[in-house]
Every structure is written in structure tokens, then in C-alpha cells.
Specification:
With 569 residues, this protein is mainly β. Among the domains are: 8-110, no CATH class; 457-563, Rossmann fold (3-Layer(aba) Sandwich). The protein has six helices and 36 strands. It has a seven-stranded antiparallel sheet with strand order 10-11-12-13-14-15-16, with no helix packed on it. β35, α4 (514-517) and β36 (522-526) form a beta-alpha-beta unit.
Length: 569
């Protein structure tokens, strides 16, 4: 008989062909877990089988037969019936886990504050924030004028807006330059198809203006009456058009500002931190092209910043009489920072501020009147580098003090500030927002995610290890477990990885994960190739003909963690 201890790990084994063919499981028995093996349950129904309906698909001279193409037909009654059968089967075979699932649900819910509020940030004359109230499902967006002790003005109570809808989401929302108009985008279907509406913040009146079937990508001009927004293709949902709307006029009179006909690119609109320029951009995996116009003259023609070139990725920011360009031009695969006068945007006029470095990925930057902040990735970890404009040689990095973590630049609307707001989390530290004085070099914690009674980060240990891949490349892995766990090869371990599209997978906190750690599990994140943790080459080594590396790296991690005693085989 298994000794009753701190948790139960339930493993269900069923063959796709027959439950009677289930293979017995060799299970680790330790003083930290009960393992209940459910195999060959006589009452288990046969799993549903999708019908094979061969469909010939031919492209570029290549023929492919897809036997299950018909399952794409979302409104087909046969598809609905099949999905219901799968759900019914799942309910039966997972029935023995009901009690454990209920326990876990209550644990996880208990770590989520029922009343919470974001850290306010100042933009012009107001402090903006959002909050949630106990027993309410949606957030409330609000602001206070001039001072945090001022009366609260509710911008949007999404709980009220959502009444009568099965699904409701507020996407982007933006306040106009005059601070008296609000534009917001709402989706009531879950398909990222939004309706844009407008609210008079002086009267709380919802205006008659309404833009349907749009995206939630919206930007105000600086004339307090013009909104730019993106529309998408009705079938593919690719954002391909940018329109201009004047408050008080019907959307049928909106002006098409830009249309992208190349199906490889998507279009978007943004505004510089300086509020001087509206940016209309198009982007795809390997190329960017930006256009701009004066934000205070929204009817102006778009000006081309730099024409698209295959392999050239770039983004821009504006300050003073210059544009600042984050670019990979000039074989700068890890990007470099350039500067150019506002009236000379062609690449031939760019001058270098921060050079390309083989070992450092330059991901982002933030401009202040006295400081330049660089968000860089070194050896797989984010670093925030502070560089005074007057004395660049006195630059320094913020010390985060942990071996594995996630950090990044937060909301910083003002140029004229010596304070950098950034966010930070690790596998043992809940999500935190801090203000950092770039002159005194001191950080002030503004808010840390509340976890609930009984949680102490000192009870857990995080590590950053390196494992050899199949080809000898050293691959980083982030690990967390409860202190006191013996690394003797008896532990259950959950290994997670991604490795695609250049998305880096940082070591952040999860309150739900505590339910695993407190039951003796070890959790590990494999930073496999295909992400961008170790620079653009890390991404290139895990895509196209090298995609196999993402999978062999993941396998190598598992083998490494077993060999080092972190996991039972």
C-alpha cells in the first residue's frame, strides 16, 4: 500500500486503439508522493474516432491528402457532435481526478486577490489606473486629476458594458489630447473584431460615433478630434488598412489613409512618445516600413521614413530634432541604435549611437531628457542599462540579484523625469512594479502581486543551469523548486519550452505553479533555440531547415535534468 503523504499524482494511461492494450507504468515511489496508476479501467468507453474523409490539397506542384480537413468546418453539425463525444470521453476518463481538481481550483483561486488595483501612472494632468472589485468579473478603468487623493473619475466600468453579453472584452482605449474624449474598442464575439465607440468625459455621454468591424488599434491625433484606426480583412483578419475618423461625423465618411496590398504584411498605427508624429507602419517577419505625419496636422500626407527591404527590421522614436532608430541594418543581427535629423530620414543620413554587439541583443530603448535607457539581453537575461546623455562613459546596469528572472521597461510617458518605471518578476518573486531613480541609483517598490496567506518566497529556490545540446551547444534552463527537496532522482518534474518566432521565454512567476511546487514537483523552463534568448542567431538556429534543434534541445534538457538528479526518468 502506498503511504499517504502530501500529494497525489494521478496518471491515466489509455491506448488510442484500445484501453485493454494499456502499458503498465513503472512509477517512482518516494516519501513525497502517492502515485495512483489508472490503467485498463473496464468501464472506460472507447475513445471517439474521427471519420477519415480524404481531401486532396495541391500547392506548388505538391499533393497532400488530409483525412481530417473536414474538422475545420466549425459550423458543421458532425464536427460539433464529434467534439461533444471527445468532451464526454474526457469527463469519464478523468473522473478519478475530480476531487484533486476541485482542491487545486480552490488553492489557485485563493491566491488571486478579489480586490486589486494597478499602479497609477501620470500622463499629462491625470493619473490613470485600473482596478477590480470583489465578485465582479471585469476591470474598471479610472483616473484622478492632478493628485492621487483627488476624486476618482470612472472612464469605463466594463462590468456595466458587458451586461447582456456572453463574451465581452475591452481592447485598447485612448484619451484624446484635450483629455475630454475617450475612444475604446469592444469585442463581443471573441474573434478580435471590435466596435470603436466614443465617450465625452465631461458629461459621461456615449457619442453617436460608431466604427464597426475594426481592430482595437487606435491612436488620437493632437487636434482633439481625429482618431486613426486599423481595419482588417474580413476573412483573414489581417490588419491591412488605416483610416482617419473625425469625431461627430459618420464612419462612412472616414478617410482611407493607407492600404497594404501585400498579404505578407500587416498594417498598424502608433504615435511617438513626444506626441509629435503619428506613425503608420507595415511589418512582416523579415521587413518593416514606416510612414509618418505631424500629429497636430492629421490631414497631412504620409511621408515615407525608410522603404522596405527584405531582411531590414526597424522601429523609430522621436525626441527633439531627431528620430532614433532601432535597426538591424548593416549586418547588425542583434540590432543597433541610430539617430537622424527629422528632415533627413533616409538610411544614408543615419549615424550610430549604440553599435551592434555579437553577444548582446538590443531589444528596446526609452528616451528621457537626461538619460537613455537600453533594454538588452545578455547571456539570455534582460539587462536595463542606464546611459546619461551628458556622460555616456558613466553608464551602469541595474542589478536584479537573482540567477533567473524577467524584467522590462514599463510605462514612462514623460521625457522630463529622472525616474524609470520598470517591472520585475522571477520564478520566486511575484510580479513587481518599481520606480528607479536614475540619479541616486535607488529603486522603490510600488507594488508586488499579492499571493495570499502562507506564501514566502524564501521557501523556494530558483537556479539557472546550462545543458549540452545534441551538437554540444550550451542551452540555458531555468529551474524552481521548494527548498529542502532532495535532488536524488525521485522527483516529478514538469519541463516547459517554446522555441518559435523569436519569442523569448523568460523565467517569471506563476501563483498557480505553487500548487505543483508545494507537492514536491520541480518546474523547469527550457530556453531552446527558436526563441531569441541568446540573440538573433539563437532564433535562426531554431527555424526552417534548423527547426529540429528546438526539439533535440528540449530532449537534451530532459536527459540532463534526469542525469543531474532533478527528475525521475
Amino acid at each position: 500500500m502506498l503511504k499517504k503523504t502530501s500529494y497525489v499524482l494521478i496518471i491515466a494511461l489509455f491506448s488510442f486503439s484500445s484501453a485493454a492494450n494499456a502499458v503498465p507504468l513503472a512509477s517512482p515511489i518516494s516519501d513525497t508522493a502517492d502515485v495512483v496508476v489508472i490503467a485498463d479501467v473496464p468501464t472506460t468507453p472507447q475513445p471517439p474516432r474521427a471519420q477519415r474523409k480524404p481531401k486532396r490539397l495541391e500547392k506548388f506542384g505538391d499533393l497532400r491528402v488530409d483525412n481530417y480537413y473536414w474538422l475545420n468546418e466549425r459550423s458543421n453539425p458532425e464536427v460539433i457532435d464529434y467534439l461533444k463525444a471527445e468532451n464526454d470521453y474526457t469527463q469519464v476518463v478523468t473522473a478519478p481526478t475530480l476531487a484533486l481538481r476541485a482542491t487545486l481550483f480552490e488553492e489557485i483561486k485563493g491566491r488571486i486577490p478579489q480586490t486589486d488595483q494597478s499602479v497609477p501612472y501620470r500622463a499629462d494632468n491625470y493619473f490613470y489606473y485600473d482596478r477590480v472589485e470583489e465578485s465582479k468579473q471585469y476591470p474598471i478603468f479610472a483616473r484622478k486629476h492632478g493628485d492621487l487623493d483627488a476624486p476618482e473619475q470612472i472612464l469605463l466600468d466594463v462590468n456595466d458594458l458587458a451586461k447582456g453579453y456572453e463574451y465581452f472584452e475591452v481592447g485598447d482605449w485612448e484619451v484624446s489630447s484635450g483629455e475630454n474624449l475617450l475612444a475604446y474598442a469592444a469585442d463581443t464575439t471573441g474573434r478580435r473584431i471590435y466596435t470603436i465607440r466614443f465617450k465625452d468625459l465631461n458629461t459621461d455621454e456615449i457619442l453617436k460615433d460608431e466604427i464597426t468591424a475594426a481592430t482595437d488599434n487606435i491612436v488620437w491625433a493632437e487636434d482633439n478630434q481625429t482618431l486613426f484606426y486599423a481595419m482588417q480583412d474580413a476573412e483573414t483578419l489581417r490588419p491591412d488598412r488605416i483610416y482617419r475618423h473625425k469625431v461627430g461625423t459618420p464612419s462612412s465618411e472616414d478617410v482611407l489613409v493607407y492600404e497594404e496590398e501585400d498579404e505578407q504584411f500587416y498594417a498598424y498605427v502608433s504615435k511617438t512618445k513626444s506626441k509629435a508624429y503619428v506613425i503608420v507602419g507595415v511589418s512582416q517577419t523579415l521587413s518593416d516600413e514606416l510612414h509618418y505625419l505631424p500629429a497636430d496636422k492629421p490631414q497631412s500626407d504620409l511621408q515615407l521614413f525608410q522603404a522596405r527591404e527584405r531582411g531590414h527590421e526597424y522601429s523609430i522614436e522621436h525626441y527633439g530634432d531627431s528620430f532614433y532608430i532601432l535597426t538591424n541594418s548593416g549586418r547588425a543581427e542583434n540590432f543597433r541604435l541610430m539617430q537622424t535629423p527629422v528632415d533627413a530620414t533616409d538610411k544614408s543620413n543615419w549615424t550610430e549611437l549604440i553599435p551592434h554587439r555579437k553577444e548582446v541583443l538590443l531589444e528596446d530603448f526609452e528616451i528621457f531628457s537626461d538619460h537613455l535607457v537600453l533594454e538588452e539581453r545578455i547571456n539570455g537575461l534582460i539587462q536595463l542599462r542606464i546611459r546619461p546623455w551628458a556622460q555616456p562613459e558613466s553608464e551602469y546596469q541595474i542589478d536584479f540579484g537573482e540567477p533567473a528572472y524577467s524584467a522590462g521597461i514599463d510605462i514612462n510617458p514623460s521625457f522630463d523625469s529622472s525616474t524609470l518605471r520598470y517591472h520585475y518578476t522571477s520564478m520566486t518573486t511575484p510580479h513587481s512594479v518599481l520606480d528607479f531613480d536614475m540619479t541616486s541609483r535607488k529603486a522603490r517598490l510600488l507594488k508586488r502581486q499579492q499571493i495570499g496567506a502562507g506564501f514566502d518566497p524564501k521557501d523556494y529556490r530558483t537556479e539557472r543551469l546550462f545543458a549540452p545540446a545534441q551538437d554540444g551547444t550550451q542551452i540555458p534552463v531555468s529551474v524552481v523548486y521548494k527548498k529542502g527537496a532532495k535532488l536524488d532522482g525521485s522527483r516529478p518534474l514538469l519541463l516547459y519550452g517554446y522555441g518559435a518566432y523569436g519569442n523569448s521565454l523568460d523565467a517569471g512567476f506563476s501563483s498557480a505553479r505553487l500548487s505543483l511546487l508545494d507537492r514536491g514537483f520541480i518546474y523547469a523552463i527550457a530556453h531552446v533555440r527558436g526563441g531569441e534568448e541568446l540573440g538573433r542567431s539563437w532564433y535562426e538556429q531554431g527555424k526552417l531547415l534548423d527547426k529540429q534543434n528546438s526539439f533535440t534541445d528540449f530532449i537534451a534538457f530532459g536527459e540532463f535534468l534526469i542525469s543531474e538528479g532533478y527528475a525521475y526518468p
